[in-house]
Each structure stands twice: as C-alpha cells, then as structure tokens.
Amino acid sequence: MKNSARLGIVAALVAAVAVVIAIKSDRDAAETADAASGGKAVVPQARAENRADQPADHGLPVLIDLGAGECIPCKMMAPILEELKQEYAGRLEVRFIDVWKYPDEAGKYGIKLIPTQIFHDASGKELFRHEGFYSKEDILARWKEFGVDLTTAELAAFERLAPAKTDDRSKENICYMCDGDIDSKTLVTVRTEKGPVRLCSPHCYFIMHSCLTEDKAGFEKRVSVTDWATGKPVPATEAVFLCGQDETTGRPWTMAFADRAGAVAERSAAGGSILALAALQDKELSHRCGFCERACYPQDAAKVIVADGVHTWGCCSHCALGVAARTGKNIEVHEKDRLTGEEIVVKTFEGKIASLEPKTSVAWFGQRKRPDGTWGS
Predict the structure, then answer these.
(1) Contact partners, residue 87, CB within 8 Å, separation at least 6
(2) pLDDT tens readout for residues 305-337
(3) Structural domains in the chain?
(4) What is the pTM of this model?
(5) Residue pair 252/297 in contact by the 8 Å Cβ criterion
(6) Backbone angles phi, psi at 34, to 5 degrees
(7) What is the pLDDT of residue 153?
(8) What integer pLDDT is reported at residue 314 of this predicted model?
(9) CA angle, corner 333, sides to 350 and 67, nearest 5?
(10) Residue 222: per-residue pLDDT
C-alpha cells in the first residue's frame, strides 16, 4: 500500500464523495457567491433558503434523497433507497430526486452537495439532513433516534445452531490449522512444548509458520514431513519437495520426498518442479492475507481491491472485510460461494456495506465447542 500516486487518487475520491452542484441557470450567480465566500457557497443563498416544496402530509415519515444518476456516491445510494422502499412500504415514503435532470429542486431544498438525504416527519417537518453516502444501518438508526421505529416485530432471539452431524473423528486425524482430514501421505508434524501438532499438508505448516509471533530462527528443525513414496517421516530440512498446480483450478500442490531420486521418479508421472525447503517457503509465503497476514493461496482466498487500486487477499470472509478497517479505505471484495462457487461481490463505503451482489448473500461466522466447553472460531 505504498503511495505512488496517492495525492491524485485522494483528490479524485474526495471529488467523488462530495459532488458539488452547479446549477446551470444560476452559474454566474453561484460563481460570484463562491468568490465572495472563499469557495464555500455554491448554491446562491436566496435559493438555498427556499424550502417551500416540502412533503405533503400522507401520515408517513419521508426520506428524500437528492442526487444524480452519474454521481458515484449517488449510485451507491440507489440500491439502499430501493431496499428501504420495498422493505418499509406503508411505513416510510422514500423519494429520489435527480437534481441534474431537475436543477430547480436543488434550490427548493437548499442543498449544496450531493447526495443529500433529508428526513421529514409525518407532518412534513424537516428533522435532519445528511450530506454524502449514508448506509442503510445509519439511516434506520437515525429514524430510531427521532422516535420512528420502522420495525414490525421483535428481532429473532440469538440462537446457536447445532452441528448437523457430530464430528467423531479422532484428534490425530484432524488438521490443527484447517480442521480438514489428514492424509497420511502428506502429514506434517511440528514438535512443540505442549506436544506434537499435526497438520494436513506443507501448506498448512506454512500458514502456521506465518502466524507465529515467536522468534522463528531454527523453527524448521522442529518439523517433519512425510515421504510421499514410503510414508515415513523425514526432517523437513532434509526433504526435497515436488510442487505443481491443479490443471483445472490452478491451486498448488506439494509432495515431500526423502531424497531427490524419489522426487524425480514421481515427477515423470505427475509433472511439476523440484524445490528445496527454502525455495518452497519463499513461494508459500509470497501471498499473504491483507488483514491478518497469514499465508494463503489465491485460489482459496477472497480477492480484495482497495480504493487506491491496491489488490490484496482475504484468507477468509472476516479478514477480507477487515482490510477496510486496517486501511481505512473503501474496498471491493470478490469471493466465491463456498457451496456453489458463484461469485459474491461486496463493496464498502466509509466503513459500511454499500452494496452486495447477489443481494441474498449471507456471511456465516461459526464457532466450535472445545472439549473443555469453551468456544473457538
């Protein structure tokens, strides 16, 4: 996230977030007012005070969004307004006014920037206005502050879902890092003070390695891998590794061997490249999660695009969204549905979810009950 063209990008983002309205018919007057007030006033004051066009009393609170079809934050408001209109029909009136198509409306409502959201109570009295993007959650929270509760029923009580099937696998057959099954031909064992840690593959070992906060000097001497050919344990520092990629998905695979001859023999059938431990480690640690910095494969991770054009990864859905918190910037997340493979796209704006496609997508955050009764993610 180094800054090569940061100034230009920030300027563009600021321009996108706060789009200044210049009403064509009043351009000369606006420019005069701008000059007189140090560039702060755009809509002439006489027009700005004219708010005669207030919502009629329909017995409903009213949310008016004044924006434009081509303004970036206005586009991000569009799906939120549509959701509010559908979900709270009969309880809230939602209106959108395109001030580029109807420039006189800007003066009638006295707005200076777009998008601007104006809240009116059921009698037509203005309660509050906000400039810029406004998330659905913040809009609903603001209505609640004014005593307008748009909900129709109590929210469902929190319920922890029980597993559909009891996990009766023995501990020695479960990977410490990914909870997957351990194939005896790819087993990796790490000696620790609390006993051996069993991992399903060299990749999960490197994930563990990337998480360590202790001094890692000589850590690899505690590690043994399994010879693919014989099934016997081999010190990782003495092993030779055969690496390749799945032809369909591109996901890397790794086999460990006690000697080069075994790797060469397997390569004649499986293909791939032969690497020493140091070279394999560099390769495995070359892709990191943009939030927690764990090693990850792009094929397993969510792709995250940060507002300044930087591309990174999220090792899980939680970390992918965490990139927004870590960078303080808007992000776009592309992740595959874990069951169907369908792409899900999440966009954030100012720390909030701005859009979600498909709209039916959900995130499931689960926890596992340990033998001692405590819970872990």
Answers:
(1) none
(2) 999 899 999 999 999 999 999 999 999 999 999
(3) 22-145 (3.40.30.10), 183-284 (no CATH), 291-377 (3.30.450.410)
(4) 0.66
(5) yes
(6) -60, -50
(7) 53
(8) 97
(9) 45
(10) 97
Go through the chain and tell me how many residues it has.
377
Angle in degrees, CA 67, 72, 77, rounded to 5: 55
pLDDT of the residue at 160: 66
Query: Would you say 91 and 60 are in contact if contact means Cβ atoms under 8 Å apart?
Result: yes
- The single-letter DSSP state of residue 345 is E
**Both structure tokens of 75:** 């586009």
179 dihedral zone (left: phi>0; alpha: psi -120 to 50; beta):
left
The pair of structure tokens assigned to 53 is: 């066009």
Show the tokens assigned to 43: 């809509």
Q: Would you state the structure tokens that stand for residue 27, as one six-digit string?
A: 């351009």
Cα 218 from Cα 159, distance rounded (Å): 46
Could you give the angle at which helices 72-87 and 136-145 cross, rounded to 10 degrees? Answer: 60
At residue 158, the pLDDT reads: 57
Residue 180 main-chain phi, psi, to 5 deg: -80, 170
Neighbour count for residue 161 (Cβ, 10 Å): 7
Half-sphere exposure (Cβ direction) of 128: Cα atoms closer than 13 Å: 15
Beta carbons of 117 and 134 less than 8 angstroms apart: yes
Q: Are 294 and 211 in contact (CB under 8 A)?
A: yes
Active site residues: 71, 74
CA atoms within 13 A on the CB side of 167: 13
What ranges in the chain are assigned the alpha helix state H? Answer: 6-17, 27-36, 45-48, 72-87, 104-109, 136-145, 202-211, 260-270, 277-284, 317-327
334-347 confidence digits (pLDDT tens): 999 988 999 999 99
Listed as ranges, residues in the chain with pLDDT below 70 are 1-58, 152-160, 377
CA angle 361, 363, 366 (to 5 degrees): 150
In three-state secondary structure terms, 15 is helix
Q: Nearest to residue 310, comparing CAs of 330, 283, 281? A: 330
